[in-house]
């Protein structure tokens, strides 16, 4: 698969806007591990090899375990993830698959109960951002380094 256009060079202002979202996410109450799990899970669902490679490396660098990364796509079947992480993962999945019925009331209410409105808002923005990055990487055929 050959790389297509380099969006960062062709549309630098668009890339700057994406990086502004990343800068915002760096100021949130979400922990680095929570953000990594959210990014990896969305990237798994979207099939984004570039983002999976990048975010699993970053997660391991920040202390995430191999076991949890291997089992992330089956997170509901394990006890390895905290209630907060489970709420984030459920919310991320439903945002990623928004066309399949949106975010359910049960998922939303559970996320607010466990995380609070502020962190839910931050998680929504994190999920939206990684989904946008996934779409950029997949559409432009960003190569895995």
UniProtKB/TrEMBL annotation:
It holds the Pfam family CMD. Residues 12-94 form the Carboxymuconolactone decarboxylase-like domain. Gene3D superfamilies: AhpD-like. GO terms for molecular function: peroxiredoxin activity. This is Carboxymuconolactone decarboxylase family protein. It comes from Hymenobacter setariae.
